[in-house]
Each structure stands twice: as C-alpha cells, then as structure tokens.
Fold this protein.
Amino acid sequence: MNSNNQHIIISITQQQIVSAELANHYRIIPFDENANSISFYTDKNEADSEKLIQELQLLLDKKITIAFASTEVIQKALATYYRTSDTEATTSNELQQLSTDFLDELLHEAKGIRASDIHVEIFEEEARVRFRIDGLLIEKYKIQTENYLELINKIKIRSNLDITEKRLPQDGRITIETFDIRVSILPTHYGEKVVMRLLGRDASHLNLNALGMNSQEQERYRTAVKKTNGIVLISGPTGSGKTTTLYATLKHLNHSKTNIVTVEDPIEYTLKGINQVQLKEDIGLTFTAALRSFLRQDPDVIMLGEIRDAQTAQMAIRASLTGHLVLSTIHTNSALGTISRLIDMGVPAFLIAETLNISIAQRLIRKLCEHCKTETILNVEDLPKSLRTNNTITHQHTAKGCNHCYYTGYKDRTAIYEMIAITEDIAEIIKQERIQEAKKLINKEESLAYKALQLFKDGITSLEEVYPILLNS
C-alpha cells in the first residue's frame, strides 16, 4: 500500500494476528499471514524498518515483511480495528488456545472500551465474539469452532451454571472486582449462544441532573416523585436507559427517613441505604411474590424492575392505593401507550387514573462526533412522508468518522423524554377509556418524534439515527 490509499480493510481473522497493545505500540496493521511469515502495513520511516522487522520477528517467531502507508491511513486503521483500553487486549495465540486468562481478558477489554454487552455465538462453519458499543454490535473476534465449547464451559463455570445442561436456557452472574456480568445462555441450532451484560456497581455518577432532561421535564418529573403515593412508569425498548433513570430517582429519594425496597432482575447498581432484592423465579421469588412481601415491610418507596404481567400490574396498583410510591418500567412505544397497555392487562381504567402520577417514554440517541461530522444538502425524499410537506430543512449533518470516534462517526449518547403528567383532564379521559383523545391535550412539542427532529435539525445527530422515531410523528 502506498500513501495515496485512503484506508485499510482487514478481516477479523487478520485482526487477531496481533493484540491491540502490540499494534498500537509498533503502529502496525497485519494484512497477510501464512505458516512462516506475516506481512504488516506501517507508517514507520524506512530507516526504522530494519529494527522493526527484527523486533517483530523476535516477538512473533515468524519472518516479517513490511509495506508502508501514510500516518493518516495507519491511524485510521488502528482506531478502527485496535481500540485501546485501560486493560491489555488478548493476543492471537491466547484466543486460539483459549488460555485460562482469556475470559477475564475478554471481560476487561469490553469494560475498557465501554461495551455494554458481549455476544458469543456459533454458526455452521464459524464462531465469533461481538461487542455492543453505543448501542451497535461490532464484530471483535473469530473463534475456532472446535474451541467454542471450551469457552462456553468456562463461562458456565464462572457463572455457577450447569455445564451438562445444553438443552435449556440458563441465567447466571459473574462477579469481577469492580463490576458484575449478567450471563444469559440460549440453546441454538449449532450450539449455545451467550450474551453477557456488563453491569457497573458504582452509582456515584447517577444524578437526576445528568439524565438529559431539560428544566421543564426535570420539574415535572421531580413533582411526580415527590408524592408519597402513586405510580411512576418509564417505558422504552431494551437499552433505552430506563434502569439508569430509575436508579437516579432512587438516589434522589434516598435519605434516612425513607424506607426504600426494590426487586430487580438483575441488581445493576448497589445503593447504600436501600434494601435490594434479586429476582429468583426458579424458587418462586417473582415480582408479584416480592411485592406482596414488601407490603409487610413498611416501605415508603417500592421499585419494581419491570411490570411484565397483569398480576404484577394489579399488585403495583394495590401498593400505590395503600400509600406507597411505586416506581417501575414497562415495555411500550410511547407514554400514552403505557396507559393502553395497563388497560389491556386488565387494570380498571379508573384505578389507572387515580394512581398513575406520570408516564414517561425515553430513548437514547447517538450523537455525531463533533470533530468530524459533515454538513451536506438534504434530499427531502430521505425524510419520512409525514415530514416532506412544508419541510424547511435544507441541510443535514452526517457521520464521517475520525480518530476521536474510532471512525464510527458517533461519540456518546443523549436521552430524549416524552412525559405525560396525569392532570384532572387526562384522568377523566382515562376513566372513560378514550385514550386516543388524550393526544389533543398533549403538546406536540413534548413528543419523542418532535425532540428527535430537533436533535437532527440542530446537527446533534443524523437522520439515520432518528428515522425510526420520526416515523411515529
């Protein structure tokens, strides 16, 4: 490759030839390997190439050949394929041989580059490891299929799961010094798939002021959670930040005069002064059973990790009627949809109107990297049909990619909220089950779609990122 080339593309197999530490230290990108030799791109000076070759041959015990590329090209490849973290990445040999340290190194590497989940999965001819970073899955490693079972068994042993059970799903937990991992194992056609969710124990950063609510939303939300009874429900898909909002709320409410109890699956953060219970459905400790016991524990605030069924919903309503503040999450697409969902679960509409303090829907939106986002002309046909008429947007910002964002074009995420505080007028509509009419009483500027559109207009995010939300406008 010469300096005129714009980028280097290598496969996952080629990426695994060296570790991230080695690649960044020597500024090398592998592009070919056989039994006796390895070829690398580098931006080192030709005068330094002989020393580089000698050191790599000593380290890798193979003949080394070098091709030169520009510093810009090498830097882009390093940021794309060899993200640096606070911990050392695994080497190729460790990956193939699955040393006893590989699982720990995999977990620490994922934590170091802020991955939220690790997916370990097998197919007919290959197995792979993927990391979810900022909401997107990125393929990280290939694993030899003959070594896959060994890795799965290592995960099961660390999770205290049954290594002989391969027909049924299993759930476990791995504890590391500074963080925990929730493990889910699912039998698939070619073998068991594992998803490991990384859970941080440190709740010091959780704060209502840091959630991304504007001043009006904060005031509305704080008013709802100040009440001594009623229900606060937060909705959204998996990974939308619902649990973070709940924990920040618990931290805000936590003081010596308040008795707070929670039942969670899993316990993602441990909060001093709060009584937290881990759900254990296999022995009968369900959300409903825990809630029934909580009512005998003289609580002021109850947090349920999720309202999953009619029985739990009705117990939550009963708890709020007897003078408790209940916080929970529910899977719906909008704040108004939460009310319809409760009615579908069999909760009487008049009880929802009496007990629901506020319904919230939230989403996490990836932000364009400030260092490389590019302004381009907008093609109106790219917008959802509902926004094409009377459109005043002429330009948009798009993702480009640079060293600051690992060439993804995005860096960090921001939350948007849709809040419906239950006023007397809305409560009356709920009692009569005329839910769709409540839309007339809700300011359109409070909707998720409107707020997503504003982020797009302001150049904070891309059309691609907010398009699914805009479809509901």
Summary: The chain is about 30% helix and 25% strand. The two ends are 48 Å apart (CA to CA). Residues 129 and 141 are 5 Å apart (CA to CA).
